[in-house]
C-alpha cells in the first residue's frame, strides 16, 4: 500500500510539500506550486496511486483495455499525465463496450486524476461525474466497489476545494470516510479525515480541524503494519507542518523516525529524515524572522542551531535512498547554505547536486527540481554569491531551457508554464524587458486555466509592461486580474508554511502594495475616473488587512453560526453622519524608500465626495541615532523608524506631557494623518475617527498624536476606534443593557516552561519558570466594575482557571467579558495568550495570601475559541482585556488583538498595546464603564472620555494612550 496518490517512494507528494514549505518561502514563489499541485498536496487522494486492482485477472489474461489501463499507470508514475490521460480515455471506452462497470469506474477515476494534474478541471469533473453515475447503478457494491466509490468521492472533494466550494468538499469527504469505513479501508479513512482538517481550517473551524487530527492519530495507533504506520505518521507530521502546527509536526515526525529506526523500516527511513529536516528548516526560518524583529543575539543563536539540525537531518540520508529523496535533501542543504553564506559548503553540495540532477528520470518532479534550483539562484544568489560559488550565471538559463524542453516532451502544460514564466522573470531581473514580456505571455497562455499561474504571470506582466512604459490603464488591467485570481488561491496559501509571513510577506503582500501604489500614483500623474480608482484602492486595502489577519490566525475567518444579521464597517460608517474612516498606508517609493498615502471615507456625501485622498510628505530629519539598524529593510523605511521612535518615546514618558522628541514626532504624525483633512474642512462635522491601520502604524496609539497648534492630543478632539479591514459586524444597534462576567489575577504568578525536545537530539534540559509581577490594582478595578454595573460574576486569582471560566460561560447570559490578567499579543497565534490559574491547583490553596506566586498556565487563541464556543447564543457585545501587551512591540503582534477579537466573536474589544500596572488603569476602566451605561454614549466616546479624564488629571500619556477600541465603535 502507498501513502497517497502522489507517493511512490515519496516522489511527487513529498516534493510538493518540500517546495511549499522548505525552500524558504521567500524563494519559493519563486516556486509556488500551481493550484492543481497545491490542492493535490492538501486534498490527499486515496486512489492508491491509481488503483492497481485487476479484479482477479492474471497478467497473462489481460484484455487490451486492461493493458491500456496498466500502460496509463506507467505513464502517470513517470509523470507523463497527457499520455496517461489519453490511454485511460481509450480504456474507459473499451470497458464501456464490454459492460465492465468497475473497471470503467477505475479508468474514469484515474482519468480524473490525470486531468486534475493538467489543470483541466471541467474534464476532471466530467470524468468523476460519469464514474459516480455508474457506481450508483451497481447494487450492491462489493468491497472493491466501495473503495472505488470512496476514491471517486475523494477526487470530487478535491475538485470542489480547488474551485472554492469548501463546504461541499467537507461534506463529500465526510461521506468518503463513511464509505471507506464500510470497505474496512483504514488508510482511506485516515486520508479522508486529513482532507477534512484542511476544509475545516479553511472555513475557520480550527478546533474541529484539530479534532479530526486526533481521530487520525488514534486510527494510526491501531495499525499493525509497521511500515504503513511509519508512513502515515509521517504524512500526519507533514500535514501538521503545512498547517503551521510545528510542535505537533515535530512530535509526529519524531515518532515516525523512532519507529523507522527501531523496526529497521529502511524503505521509509530516508523519507522521514527528509520530513524531519523540512520541519526544522521552517522552524529555523520562523525563529530567524523573530530574531530579526527582536534584534536579540540569543534568538538568532536559536535559529542557527535549528538550521544546523536541519542540515544534519538532510545529510543523514543514505546514498542508498531513492534518488529523488537524495536530490531534494541536497537541494535543501544548498538552499540553507546559500542563505547562510556558507560558500564552501554550497560549492561542495552543488557538485553532488548537479550530478544527481542529470540522473533524474524525465517527469514533472524532475522539471520542478531543476526549476527550484534555478529560482534559488535567481532569488538568493546575489552577485557576491555568484562570485563565490562555481555555478556560472549562464547555467540558470540552461537549467530553465532544459526544463522547458523536458516539459514540452512530456506534454505537461503546467511545467511548461512555470519554465516559461521563470525565464521571463530571469529576463526581467536582467532588465531585458521585451524578451521578458514575450516569455511571460507564453507562460500565461500555457497556464490559462489555473488561478495560481494566472496571478503570477499577470502580476509579472504588469511589472514588465510598467517598465516598458505601457499605458497606465493596461498595466492596471494586469494587476486587476492578478488581484482577482489571488483571491481564488489565498485560502490555499494559508497552508504553505509555519507563519505565513514567509510566503505572504514576500509573494502576496507585494502584489497588494504595488497594485495600491498604481491606483494611488504620485500627485503629478493625472488620473481619469479618480473616484472609481480611489474606491478600488480602498477595497484592496481592506482585503489586504483581512488577508494579514487570516495569515496571522493561519485559518480562514470563521462565519458566525447564528441568526444575527450582519453588515460591514463601511456600511455602518456611511450611515453614521459623525464618523469617518481613515486609511493610512505605507507604499514603496523610489529610490528604496517609502511614501504615505491616506484615504478618508466620509459619511453621507455625494458619490464623488465619499472618499478623499491626500499624500503627506515625510521629513528625512528628526530620527534618533538609536533608530539606526543593521537591517537594510529597516534602514530604507524612514516612516517605520519614526513610528518606532515615537512608540519608544511614548512608553518612556515620565510626566504628563511627551518628551520633546516625542512631542515633535506626535505632531509630525498628526500632520501626516489628520491635518490635511482638517484644513480641507472634511472633519468639521466628525466626532469619531475609525482607523484602518497599516504596518508600523498599528503599533502606535493614535490617541497620543498631538496637534501643536491647539495643544491637544487627538483623543481630546475625536473619539477613536481601530478596525482590521471591512469585517462584518452585527447590523442591529449595540445593546443598551449589560450583564458582565469578570475575572483576573492580582497576585504574582509563575508559569512553568517545559523544555523543548529536539527531533535530532534527546535534550534533558530542566523545566524553567517565567515569573510575572503582581497586578496590584486589579482587585480595585474589578470592584469598581461591580459597583457601577451592579451584580457581576467574578473569578479572582485561584478561582480564575479554564474550567471555571468555561462553566461560567456555558451557564450564563453575559454580553460583556472583562479579563484583567497578564497576557501577550505575540508573534504568532501560538504566542498570543492570557494567563489563568493552573487547572490542577487546588482551590483551597491560599498561596497568594502567603506572598507566594500562583502557578498559572496559558489560555491561548485555541482555548479562547473553545471556551467562547461553549457560550449560549447571547451575542458578545464587548470583550475587555485590561492588562495585556504586545510581546516585542512589533506591528505584527497587534494582529493578536484582532485575533482575539475575531476568535471571541465580540462586536467590540478593548485592549492595550502595553501593560500598565498603576492605579490609573483602575481609574480609566471605572470611568469607561460609568460612561458605557449611558445609552446616549458610544463605546468609542466612553473610552475617549475615560482617557480625557486622565489627561485632565495630568496622568502621563504612557498610562492612558495604549488603550484601543477594536471593531464596532457604536
From TrEMBL:
Residues 663-968 form the CHAT domain. It comes from Adonisia turfae CCMR0082. Residues 613-631 have a biased composition (Polar residues). This is CHAT domain-containing protein. InterPro entries: CHAT_dom, TPR-like_helical_dom_sf, TPR_rpt. Residues 613-638 are annotated as: Disordered. It holds the Pfam family CHAT.
Amino acid at each position: 500500500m502507498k501513502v497517497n496518490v502522489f507517493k511512490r517512494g515519496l516522489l511527487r507528494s513529498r516534493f510538493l510539500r518540500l517546495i511549499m514549505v522548505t525552500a524558504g518561502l521567500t524563494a519559493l514563489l519563486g516556486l509556488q506550486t500551481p493550484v492543481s499541485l497545491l490542492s493535490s498536496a492538501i486534498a490527499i487522494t486515496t486512489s492508491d496511486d491509481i488503483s492497481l486492482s485487476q479484479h482477479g485477472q492474471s497478467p497473462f489474461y489481460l484484455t487490451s483495455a486492461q493493458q491500456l489501463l496498466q500502460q496509463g499507470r506507467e505513464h502517470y508514475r513517470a509523470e507523463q499525465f497527457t499520455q496517461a490521460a489519453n490511454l485511460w480515455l481509450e480504456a474507459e471506452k473499451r470497458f464501456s463496450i464490454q459492460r465492465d462497470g468497475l473497471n470503467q469506474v477505475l479508468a474514469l477515476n484515474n482519468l480524473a486524476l490525470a486531468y486534475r494534474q493538467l489543470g483541466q478541471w471541467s474534464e476532471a469533473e466530467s470524468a468523476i461525474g460519469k464514474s459516480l453515475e455508474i457506481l450508483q447503478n451497481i447494487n450492491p457494491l462489493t468491497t472493491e466497489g466501495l473503495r472505488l466509490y470512496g476514491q471517486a468521492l475523494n477526487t470530487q472533494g478535491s475538485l470542489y476545494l480547488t474551485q472554492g466550494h469548501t463546504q461541499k468538499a467537507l461534506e463529500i469527504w465526510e461521506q468518503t470516510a463513511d464509505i471507506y469505513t464500510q470497505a474496512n479501508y483504514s488508510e482511506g479513512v485516515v486520508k479522508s479525515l486529513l482532507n477534512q482538517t484542511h476544509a475545516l481550517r479553511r472555513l475557520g473551524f480550527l478546533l474541529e480541524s484539530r479534532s479530526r487530527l486526533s481521530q487520525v492519530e488514534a486510527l494510526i495507533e491501531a495499525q499493525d503494519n509497521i511500515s504503513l504506520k511509519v508512513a502515515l505518521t509521517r504524512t500526519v507530521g507533514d500535514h501538521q507542518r503545512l498547517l503551521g502546527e510545528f510542535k505537533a509536526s515535530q512530535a509526529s515526525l519524531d515518532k515516525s523516525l523512532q519507529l523507522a529506526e527501531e523496526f529497521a523500516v529502511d524503505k521509509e527511513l530516508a523519507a522521514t529524515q527528509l520530513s524531519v529536516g523540512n520541519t526544522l528548516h521552517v522552524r529555523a526560518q520562523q525563529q530567524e524572522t523573530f530574531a530579526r524583529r527582536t534584534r536579540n543575539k540569543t534568538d538568532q543563536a536559536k535559529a542557527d542551531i535549528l538550521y544546523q539540525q536541519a542540515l544534519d537531518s538532510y545529510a543523514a540520508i543514505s546514498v542508498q535512498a531513492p534518488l529523488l529523496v537524495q536530490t531534494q535533501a541536497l537541494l535543501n542543504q544548498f538552499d540553507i547554505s546559500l542563505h547562510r553564506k556558507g560558500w564552501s559548503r554550497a560549492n561542495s553540495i552543488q557538485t553532488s547536486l548537479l550530478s544527481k540532477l542529470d540522473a533524474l528520470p524525465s517527469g514533472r518532479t524532475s522539471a520542478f527540481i531543476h526549476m527550484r534550483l534555478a529560482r534559488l539562484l535567481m532569488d538568493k544568489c546575489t552577485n557576491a554569491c555568484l562570485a563565490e560559488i562555481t555555478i556560472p550565471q549562464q547555467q540558470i538559463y540552461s537549467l530553465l531551457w532544459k526544463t522547458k524542453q523536458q516539459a514540452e516532451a512530456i506534454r505537461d502544460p503546467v511545467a511548461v508554464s512555470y519554465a516559461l514564466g521563470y525565464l521571463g522573470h530571469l529576463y526581467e531581473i536582467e532588465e531585458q524587458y521585451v524578451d521578458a514580456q514575450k516569455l511571460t505571455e507564453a507562460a500565461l497562455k500555457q497556464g490559462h486555466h489555473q488561478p495560481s499561474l494566472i496571478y503570477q504571470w499577470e502580476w509579472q506582466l504588469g511589472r514588465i509592461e510598467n517598465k516598458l512604459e505601457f499605458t497606465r490603464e493596461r498595466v492596471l488591467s494586469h494587476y486587476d486580474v492578478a488581484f482577482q485570481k489571488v483571491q481564488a488561491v489565498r485560502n490555499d496559501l494559508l497552508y504553505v508554511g509555519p507563519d505565513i509571513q514567509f510566503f505572504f510577506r514576500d509573494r502576496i503582500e507585494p502584489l497588494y502594495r504595488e497594485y495600491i501604489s498604481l491606483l494611488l500614483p504620485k500627485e503629478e500623474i493625472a488620473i481619469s475616473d479618480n473616484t472609481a480608482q480611489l474606491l478600488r484602492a480602498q477595497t484592496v486595502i481592506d482585503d489586504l488587512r483581512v488577508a494579514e489577519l487570516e495569515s496571522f490566525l493561519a485559518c480562514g475567518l470563521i462565519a458566525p453560526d447564528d441568526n444575527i444579521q450582519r453588515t460591514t464597517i463601511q456600511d455602518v460608517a456611511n450611515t453614521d453622519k459623525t464618523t469617518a474612516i481613515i486609511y493610512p498606508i505605507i507604499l514603496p517609493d523610489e529610490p528604496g524608500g517609502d511614501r504615505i498615502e491616506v484615504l478618508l471615507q466620509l459619511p453621507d456625501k455625494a458619490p464623488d465626495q465619499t472618499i478623499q485622498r491626500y499624500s503627506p510628505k515625510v521629513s528625512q530629519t528628526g530620527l534618533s541615532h538609536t533608530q539606526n539598524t543593521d537591517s537594510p529593510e529597516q534602514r530604507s523605511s524612514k516612516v517605520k523608524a519614526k513610528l518606532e521612535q515615537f512608540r519608544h518615546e511614548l512608553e518612556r514618558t515620565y510626566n504628563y506631557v511627551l518628551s520633546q522628541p516625542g512631542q515633535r514626532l506626535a505632531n509630525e504624525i498628526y500632520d501626516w494623518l489628520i491635518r490635511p483633512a482638517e484644513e480641507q474642512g472634511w472633519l468639521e462635522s466628525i466626532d469619531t475617527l475609525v482607523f484602518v491601520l497599516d504596518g508600523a502604524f498599528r503599533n502606535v496609539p493614535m490617541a497620543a498624536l498631538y496637534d501643536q497648534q491647539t495643544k491637544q492630543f487627538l483623543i481630546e478632539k475625536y473619539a477613536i476606534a481601530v478596525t482590521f479591514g471591512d469585517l462584518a459586524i452585527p447590523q442591529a444597534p449595540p445593546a443598551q443593557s449589560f450583564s458582565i462576567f469578570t475575572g483576573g489575577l492580582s497576585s504574582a504568578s509563575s508559569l512553568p516552561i517545559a523544555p523543548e525536545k529536539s527531533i535530532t537530539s534527546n535534550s534533558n534540559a530542566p523545566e524553567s519558570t517565567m515569573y510575572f509581577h503582581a497586578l496590584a490594582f486589579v482587585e480595585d478595578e474589578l470592584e469598581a466594575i461591580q459597583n457601577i454595573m451592579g451584580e457581576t460574576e467574578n473569578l479572582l486569582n485561584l478561582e480564575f482557571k479554564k474550567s471555571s471560566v468555561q462553566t461560567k460561560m456555558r451557564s450564563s447570559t453575559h454580553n460583556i467579558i472583562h479579563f484583567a490578567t497578564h497576557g501577550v499579543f505575540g508573534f504568532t497565534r501560538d504566542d498570543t495568550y492570557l494567563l489563568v490559574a493552573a487547572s490542577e491547583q487546588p482551590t483551597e490553596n491560599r498561596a497568594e495570601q502567603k506572598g507566594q506566586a500562583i502557578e498559572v498556565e496559558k489560555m491561548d487563541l485555541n482555548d479562547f475559541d473553545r471556551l467562547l464556543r461553549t457560550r449560549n447564543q447571547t451575542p458578545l457585545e464587548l470583550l475587555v482585556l485590561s492588562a495585556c501587551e504586545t510581546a516585542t512591540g512589533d506591528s505584527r503582534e497587534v494582529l493578536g488583538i484582532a485575533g482575539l477579537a475575531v476568535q471571541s466573536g465580540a462586536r467590540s474589544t478593548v485592549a492595550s498595546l502595553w501593560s500598565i500596572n498603576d492605579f490609573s488603569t483602575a481609574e480609566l476602566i471605572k470611568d469607561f464603564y460609568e460612561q458605557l451605561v449611558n445609552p446616549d454614549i458610544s463605546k468609542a466616546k466612553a473610552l475617549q472620555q475615560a482617557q480625557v479624564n486622565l489627561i485632565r488629571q495630568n496622568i502621563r500619556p504612557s498610562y492612558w494612550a495604549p488603550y484601543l477600541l477594536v471593531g464596532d465603535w457604536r
